[in-house]
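Reopening this ticket.

The earlier resolution said the output was attached, but the attachment link was broken on my side. Pasting everything inline this time so it's all in one place.
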Amino acid sequence: MHACLFNIQRFSIHDGPGIRTTVFFKGCPMRCLWCSNPESIRPEPEVMWQKAACTGCRACVTACPVGAVVGAADGPTFDRVRCTACGACLAACPHGALTMAGKLYSLEEVTTECQRDRDFFEESGGGVTLSGGEATAQADFAAALLRRLRDDNVHTAIETNGVTGRDAFRKVAALADLILFDIKHHDPDKHREGTGRDIRAVCENLRWLVASDREVVVRIPVIRGYSETRADAAAFARLLGAVGVRRAQLLPFHQMGQNKYAMIGRDYALADQPQMRKEELAPFRDIMLEAGMAEVIV
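Inline output:
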């Protein structure tokens, strides 16, 4: 059994309690305009090009066996459809300007890597978090990994957007100790505008989590010009209250992934948006609390 991952990050401190190892699955059904990991969207490996390290030597163009790399005055361009992610261009690049986002890992490889820091997990109350991309999009592998970690008494969490189908979602979520569940917008039309996907599956999966008495933290990305108003705050509180959620976390918009869009040949729709500071979210938090939320973390 194998899965395509784009990172296994050790010593994470923002993906659940304690010190954690975060496993980043490649492939996501959503297309969020503000995505900070654009290399996670496509399910297969893809080449990333770092312009600052490129000298324009065209070694990658010559090396590509399928003609997917084309030389240009300002650096190579990549035919993402034709590219087979064989790695020949990476091997030929003398300056390390090319890297591969995504690699197939066996279940044994990932399990072994996750268990390297068991001592830190035990001392800090940490564990392993499955993130992405969207881990539930590779449900069989994610569920198998969670079972192994549970059998070894490792605390587990998943970060999810909740958009995958019912069976795949429940297969994974039922095995995690903690579910960090992102709600992108409260309004169906705005949700589809910002993510490319319908909100109904998200709400259905969240209702199931609450009814199943799972430990869940709902997280709301607050995006300028999209979900930042006082009316949005009140509407989020109503939506969450209707399904029995009384605890949420606000995630301020940031630009930490902006440079990666150019590296994979994608346009970034929010390039001109300024970042948000945590203190800007205080009014948003207060409105949600006034609307009945028990706790809102910023």
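Reporter confirms the inline version is readable. Residues 238 and 291 are 7 Å apart (CA to CA). The first strand starts at residue 2 and ends at 12.
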